[in-house]
Amino acid sequence: MRGNLPALPDGLPPFLRPRPLFPLFLFPLFLFAALAARPDDVRWYRSNAAGMRLEEETSRFAALRNEYALSRAPGFQAELPAEVIPFFAELEEEAPPLIEVQILYQNGAEIRRQWVLRLDGVTRLAAAFAVKEKTPAETPDDPPPEDGAEGPDGFIEVFDAGGLVLREHQFAAGKETAVVYSYNGTAQVRAETSEREGGVLVPLYTDAFFYRRSGALRRAERVYRASGQRARLSFLRGFPGADDDFISPSGYGYDMLEDVYLNEGYRIVYSTDERGRVLSETFYDENDELVGVLSNTWTEDRLTSVSWKPASEEGDRLSEFEYDDEGNRTAERDYRFGIMERTVTRDGERDIEELYMDGKIILRAVWEDGRKVSEERIQAK
Question: What are the pLDDT tens digits along the chain (381 aa)?
């Protein structure tokens, strides 16, 4: 049929020559792609090495003039890293999550990408991975990279609808470490740490957390899965910023009255009285050198003081305790080098904490259910 049409003269100008028709069914795809790439969807910020949004900039050019710049834009499932896809699929069973991608630049070069997945406006996943420079091999005979040198560097955090962290995955030097958290209400009670080997997460150790009535952390206990060894660390200072090296007694059960190796190097030697109460805990490092001695003083079954004397310096750190007739702790006083640093007094369901400097009170805070409800800074007279 086409052969019956009159032949077109060869001398037609280009704008009159026949052209193939544009497939109209592809037009929506091109329109969607064009809209998805609109510059209006991207917001730019002055940033820092941590990727914080310090100040919004008017344009990409203005943002990239800073040492660090950050962009935010809608993201798409096809752009997600392979490590994030399984978690995306889990969230998608509840509802399709909204994706946001954030790109951090340093001196104009992209150094990190972060993905945020939200359901009903709540962040349910955050993932960030460093952008590595690709260095092509100079010759085909170049040796392959060492084990662990490849793989992503970054992390994935999964949250519940209330904002609590359920899982963490850390990626570094070709290794993946995962932590699964359990809660009693909002208090974290367990953390199980595993490491991926041969495509399978192998349990390493489990941390259990124990709290005071006020909600402040009292102690943490770690059990190594392979050996069954235990390590217990307790925090006399149950408030944010507590010193981790002040370790309170761990001898409340006969299962702990033996040498316990910490981090496969440190160990503790316990001494007890005839009633099984721990009188001292002597700490040694991996070279069997003395680290310090923790000494406990008891009145009946009540711990009345704990002192820590390190081997590396003079002077004790001391905490003293008071109790009511029912055996509930009502007061605590902490000293360093014989000078009071902190007191905590129990008042009904509240803990009143006072911090001292050079023997003079500088701050008073009130805690309820493990939360700070008020704070007063006091000018020294």
Answer: 444 544 545 554 444 444 444 444 444 444 444 444 445 589 999 998 888 888 999 999 999 999 999 999 999 999 899 999 999 999 999 999 999 999 999 999 999 999 999 999 999 999 999 987 655 544 455 555 444 456 788 999 999 998 899 999 999 888 999 999 998 888 788 889 999 998 899 999 888 877 655 565 666 778 887 776 666 554 433 333 333 332 333 322 222 222 333 444 567 777 877 777 788 888 887 788 887 888 888 888 788 888 888 887 666 788 898 988 888 888 988 888 888 888 889 887 788 888 887 778 888 888 876 667 777 777 655
Q: What is the DSSP string of 346-368?
A: EETTEEEEEEEETTEEEEEEEEE
Q: Which residue bears the tokens 């001695």?
A: 293
Which DSSP symbol is given to 252?
S
If we measure between CA atoms, which residue out of 106, 105, 104, 107 comes closest to residue 115? 104
301 with 284: CB under 8 angstroms?
no
Contact between 355 and 334 under an 8 Å Cβ cutoff? The reply is no
Distance CA(62)–CA(106), nearest Å, equals 14
**Residue at 166: amino acid letter:** L
CA distance 58 to 208: 49
Token readout for 288 is 């069997």
Instruction: Tell which phi-psi region holds residue 215, choosing left (phi > 0), alpha (psi between -120 and 50) or beta.
Output: left
Q: 343: number of CA atoms within 13 Å, CB side?
A: 16
Q: For residues 119 and 301, what is the distance between their CA atoms, to the nearest angstrom?
A: 51
Q: Is 16 helix (H, G, I), strand (E, B) or coil?
A: helix
CA distance 169 to 178: 4
H helix intervals, 277-319: none
